[in-house]
Amino acid sequence: MTGLPQLFLTFLGLLFCAGDVAILGVLLTWQERAPTPSSRRHRFLRFVLPAAVVLVALLLLAFVQIMLLWSAQ
Q1: What's the predicted TM-score (pTM) here?
Q2: Gap between the Cα atoms of 16 and 22, Å rounded
Q3: How many CA atoms lie within 13 A of 17 on its CB side?
Q4: Which controlled-vocabulary keywords does the entry list (predicted)?
Q5: pLDDT (tens digit, 9 = 90+) per residue, 59-68?
């Protein structure tokens, strides 16, 4: 598979990666805006850390899929 479909899928993958990084930034900003240090820690442990693990895993999966798309098979 070469040509336009490959470029289109690559563009979608890169768009997904950019959105993933933006969501990580929003999560970290939300966590830092908590009023007290204890609520910051609570937000980090309950929400940001699990979500960040999932988002980073999806980011790595998207990169692997893009690399497989362009590899010679």
Answers
A1: 0.85
A2: 10
A3: 14
A4: Membrane, Transmembrane, Transmembrane helix
A5: 999 999 999 9
Q: Measured on CA atoms in the order 31, 37, 41, 42, is the torsion positive or negative?
A: negative
CA distance 7 to 14: 10
Report how far residue 55's alpha carbon sits from residue 62's, in angstroms, rounded to the nearest whole number. Answer: 10
* Distance separating alpha carbons of residues 23 and 33, to the nearest angstrom: 15
- The contacts of residue 69 (CB under 8 Å, 6+ apart) are 1, 6, 9, 10, 13
Q: Please classify residue 10 by burial: count the beta carbons closer than 10 Å to its beta carbon, then call 0-12 exposed, 13-18 middle and 19+ buried.
A: middle
Structure tokens of 66?
């893009």
CA distance 24 to 4: 30
At 30-68, the pLDDT tens digits run 999 999 999 999 999 999 999 999 999 999 999 999 999
